[in-house]
Specification:
heterodimer; A: alpha+beta; Beta Polymerase, domain 2; five-stranded mixed sheet; two-stranded antiparallel sheet; 23% strand; B: alpha+beta; Cytochrome-c3 Hydrogenase, chain B; 2 domains; three-stranded antiparallel sheet; 18 helices; globular
Chain lengths: 262, 446
């Protein structure tokens, strides 16, 4: 009896399932079309768009099953801040403006976000800014805590960012962050090893991981990866997979090829 | 015969003369010394490591020797690079704690703490005070554990195995408490964004107090063994000298900086995790050498015990208060408990999500698989790890995974001083100098 039931019901179920699937397809197509027609929300003029996010569940493999696959949202980074910046930040900017010859060109953008001060510095002025930060008694940032790279593949012309952190022990742990950018095609930034010897290995690491060439570094070689390693692993276009593990008659997908959500 | 001589062979294929190369892989050392003597060259380049037992993991030291004197020393790193930062970009913010904790495996709690402080800064949330107190307690105990390893392995490298056995024995006390609280002796993933994974278990504080009392005895024993030990002093006094100017130029932090007399400690100068309410001293000395760093580490352990005892008192007062933020969009849903078969999700929680509340199940599933979203932006946060300033630079693109996570590991930074500390000294002092940095390659290479 049970058998008969399943036999009877299964074809019905099958057709039901099929029709649902096709309906689903139609609706997602419609949504996608709709989304294409409506432009993405225009960002606030001052906020920096660093990327566009698509879909809601945001799978990097494009198999968003949430039904919001057509959703298109800009990733907005905090905009440039206006004075007063608050706390000791105004003072730092003032002293820096007094010490650096062409401050507006050297620091085109100041961002205060989440209690951190970020100065966007143009690469040709980095060395001058660093010198002033180190030597000016009112600033006295003795500690350069290293440089970290960030790769924004969608920021055309400034795909690679180098982010420096400084701290001043003299002035009771004041901190400031410098951010520089360069393009993928010409990934060159000035080195400040002779100003802050402490940043030696950090620049080598950022070169190793992102391929940013720090001009003037006394020995810019790979530091973590082997000397003959092809590519720069921390770039976004570099897969996580690495060297595939081989088994007899089977293979495992690279970690970034497995299930993923963003 | 496992040694071989390849005199004047061009190993690298370029036209430069590589000089005589001697490979020592066990076998007869007399043969090597004879061969070297035959070449008649006083300056030789020695590769120490990358698997030398006294190099704190897989550190490679390239030494240019003139007789017994080190003319140039270079550190080669990267042998333990595991791509932790890259991996974190492919996992949720919470899963990142399990990666971060494995960086410097002797200071797992600090790695988790700085990473979670960074996320909390990005999210703009404050954690409950009890969670901060637990973090302080765990960090200070971890500081004791890390310093004990620094002294223990340092002593072992000098041939003093008693120091090692004493230190490891005392460290066990800390690890027992860690195991009782987090379930693991290391790589805990105990500190989570928004608080800690679970409260201190019942009877945990009493157990800790007992262990701390014993630990004090052990530390005293260690002090009696080390402080005025003529052999130790002969090996460490004036060895690995680095002045304040040198520390500033190289950006050195931690015990090395404090051994020059500068009381720089982020716990005091930039308090985090409510360190401002704890009463402790920043220990300094003005020896500027390996001996001073040993003494500073011992003194800091006493301070850590002091802080731990205050933390225990605070935790007694705040018994029953939450250890995780209330926001259920961030707080990890599983309430852990210890059952007959070890630690796992609490039965009450399982009963709720499987039996009574569909919504709880959905939230649990969403939070565990997809994770929470963090508003776009970047932060830097730093804490005082046993080795110096441990910083994290986190960038979020508004997703459920870090867009970029970078760790400023103090070992990575301080190891740059290996050349300065050992050049001009003897080969035997290289070991002492490197041990006084206390680098852990898991953190250096990440």
């Amino acid at each position: 009896m049970g058998k008969e039931k399943t036999n009877k019901n299964s074809p019905d179920k099958g057709t039901l399932g099929e029709s649902r699937e096709s309906e689903d397809l139609k609706t997602t197509e419609a949504i996608n079309k709709h989304e294409e027609q409506v432009p993405a929300d225009a960002p606030e003029p001052s906020a920096t768009v660093v990327a566009q996010k698509q879909g809601m569940f945001g799978s990097s493999l494009g198999n968003d099953t949430s039904g919001y696959g057509g959703l298109n949202q800009p990733v907005l980074f905090p905009p440039a801040s206006q004075r007063p910046y608050g706390g000791y930040f105004d003072e730092i900017v003032d002293f820096l403006a007094a010490g650096v010859s062409d401050f507006d060109a050297a620091v085109p953008k100041v961002v205060v976000d989440r209690g951190d001060l970020t100065l966007h510095v143009s690469p040709q002025h980095l060395r001058e800014v660093a010198m002033v930060m180190r030597d000016d008694a009112n600033l006295r940032f003795e500690m350069c805590l290293g440089v970290s790279g960030v790769n924004y593949p969608e920021l055309v012309g400034e795909e690679l960012h180098a982010v420096y952190h400084f701290a001043s022990i003299t002035h009771n742990m004041r901190r400031v962050r410098l951010e520089l950018s360069c393009s993928d095609d010409h990934a060159v930034l000035p080195s400040i090893v002779d100003v802050y010897p402490a940043i030696d290995w950090h620049e080598r690491e950022t070169y190793d991981m992102f391929g940013i060439v720090f001009e003037g570094h006394p020995g810019l070689t790979r530091i973590l990866m082997p000397d003959d390693w092809p590519g720069h692993p921390q770039r976004k276009d570099y897969p996580l997979g690495g060297i595939p593990v081989e088994y007899k008659g089977a293979s495992i997908p690279a970690p970034d090829q497995r299930r993923s959500y963003s | 015969m496992s040694t071989e001589t390849q005199a004047n062979q061009d190993l690298f294929g370029d036209d430069e003369t590589a000089g005589a190369v001697f490979n020592a892989a066990g076998g007869d050392w007399d043969q090597i010394t004879e061969d070297i003597a035959a070449v008649g060259e006083e300056r030789i380049v020695v590769n120490m490591g990358p698997q030398h037992p006294s190099t704190h993991g897989v550190l490679r030291l390239i030494l240019e020797l003139d007789g017994e004197t080190v003319r140039e020393a270079r550190a080669g790193i990267g042998y333990l690079h595991t791509g932790i930062e890259k991996n974190m970009e492919f996992r949720t913010w919470v899963q990142g704690t399990t990666f971060a904790t494995r960086m410097d495996y002797l200071t797992p709690i600090f790695n988790e703490a700085v990473y979670c402080l960074g996320i909390e800064k990005l999210l703009g949330i404050d954690v409950p005070e009890r969670a901060s107190d637990i973090r302080v307690l765990m960090m200070e105990l971890n500081r004791i554990g890390s310093h004990l390893i620094a002294l223990g392995t340092g002593g072992m490298e000098l041939g003093a195995t008693t120091v090692m056995t004493t230190c490891f024995r005392e460290r066990e006390r800390v690890l027992r408490f860690f195991e009782a609280t987090t379930g693991l002796r290391m790589n805990h993933a105990y500190i989570r964004p928004g608080g800690v994974a679970q409260d201190i278990p019942e009877g945990g504080l009493e157990m800790l107090e007992k262990e701390l009392a014993d630990l004090k005895g052990g530390l005293r024993e260690l002090e009696l063994l080390l402080n005025e030990n003529p052999v130790l002093k002969a090996r460490t006094v004036d060895v690995g000298y680095l002045s304040l100017a040198g520390c500033m130029a190289l950006g050195i932090t931690g015990p090395i900086l404090r051994s020059t007399g500068l009381p720089h400690d982020l716990r005091k100068s930039e308090p985090y995790c409510t360190y401002e309410k704890y009463d402790f001293e920043v220990k300094t000395r003005d020896d500027m050498d390996a001996y001073g760093r040993i003494r500073i580490r011992i003194d800091e352990m006493w301070e850590s015990i002091k802080i731990s005892e205050q933390a225990i008192a605070f935790l007694r007062e705040s018994e029953g208060q939450p250890v995780m933020v209330e926001d259920k969009n961030i707080a990890w849903p599983a309430q852990l408990s210890i059952g007959a078969d070890g630690q796992g999700n609490s039965l009450d929680h399982i009963r709720e999500i499987m039996g009574t509340s569909m919504e709880s199940l959905i939230y649990h599933f969403k939070l565990v698989t997809e994770g929470f979203r963090v508003p776009p932006g970047q932060v830097y946060s730093a804490i005082e790890s046993p080795k110096g300033e441990l910083g994290v630079h986190l960038v979020s693109d508004g997703g459920t995974r870090p867009f970029r996570a970078h760790f400023r590991d103090p070992s990575f930074h301080n190891l740059q001083a290996a050349s300065v500390l050992s050049e001009g000294g003897l080969v035997a002092d290289v070991i002492v100098a490197v041990a006084s940095i206390d680098p852990v390659m898991g953190g250096v290479d990440r």
